[in-house]
């Protein structure tokens, strides 16, 4: 865990929970005011910061609270979709999000431009960079390239990273031991015990989304168990 002096928005997240408030296209909660309310509910529960996507959602959340806001813009259907270009970075920063999250994997970017341009665009706009990575090597490169935070967000979502049912705690531990910048644990953290385990593995902060803010998935988890219990035994 980073111990040197950090920018104020980052320092406020040390050892704390960040809640990701996002809804997928076509879902009933895909609405900026719904995400604003979701963020406020999470903050009432003890979250120290919010991660959210989409310019309208970010503006609505920023207007409602001054907690650290990690902003991103998902654009595209596959590959690099999290704040994929420097142009996306600038627009996310303009919403007032202090931290811009972006895909920092080794996959090609849709505009063919180098990742360094996106890092520079965030810093020029006065924002910090959270580099979402999938592997240890990507985390090292992101930190060397100027990322202010490195997140394990994309582990399990690329071909060269392990597909685990829960969080990639080994990646959290390895990055935390190797980097001077804060390492944020994110991805498939489904229980409070897993969130605690991520901090114990060396994470600076923990981001939880689905298990808190995605009722459709939560309902499916419960419905699957109920349906399994109700289903008559096979003969």
UniProtKB/TrEMBL annotation:
Q: Name one GO molecular function term.
A: N-acylglucosamine-6-phosphate 2-epimerase activity
Which EC number(s) are documented for this chain? 5.1.3.9
The identity of this protein, by name, is Putative N-acetylmannosamine-6-phosphate 2-epimerase
**Pathway, per Swiss-Prot/TrEMBL?**
Amino-sugar metabolism; N-acetylneuraminate degradation; D-fructose 6-phosphate from N-acetylneuraminate: step 3/5
* Family (UniProt): Belongs to the NanE family.
Q: Does the keyword Aminoacyl-tRNA synthetase apply?
A: no
This enzyme catalyses: an N-acyl-D-glucosamine 6-phosphate = an N-acyl-D-mannosamine 6-phosphate
Keywords associated with the record: Carbohydrate metabolism, Isomerase
Organism, as annotated: Kitasatospora cineracea
């Amino acid at each position: 865990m980073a111990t040197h002096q950090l920018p104020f928005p980052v320092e406020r997240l040390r050892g704390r929970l960040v809640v990701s408030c996002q809804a997928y296209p076509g879902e009933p909660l895909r609405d900026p005011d719904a995400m604003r309310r979701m963020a406020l509910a999470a903050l009432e529960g003890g979250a120290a910061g919010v991660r959210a996507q989409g310019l309208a959602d970010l503006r609505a959340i920023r207007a409602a609270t001054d907690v650290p806001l990690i902003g991103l813009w998902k654009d595209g259907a596959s590959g690099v979709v999290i704040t994929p270009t420097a142009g996306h970075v600038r627009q996310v920063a303009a919403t007032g999000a202090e931290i811009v999250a972006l895909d920092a994997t080794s996959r090609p970017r849709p505009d063919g431009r180098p990742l360094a341009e996106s890092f520079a665009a965030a810093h020029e706009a006065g924002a910090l960079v959270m580099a979402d990575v999938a592997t240890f090597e990507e985390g090292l490169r992101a930190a060397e390239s100027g990322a202010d935070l490195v997140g394990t967000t994309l582990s399990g979502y690329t071909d060269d990273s392990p597909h685990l049912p829960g969080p990639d705690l080994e990646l959290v531990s390895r990055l935390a031991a190797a980097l001077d910048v804060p390492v944020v644990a994110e991805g498939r953290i489904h229980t409070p015990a897993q969130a605690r385990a991520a901090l114990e593995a060396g994470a600076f902060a923990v981001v939880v989304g689905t298990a808190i803010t995605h009722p459709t998935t939560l309902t499916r988890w419960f419905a699957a168990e109920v349906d399994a219990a109700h289903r008559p035994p096979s003969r």
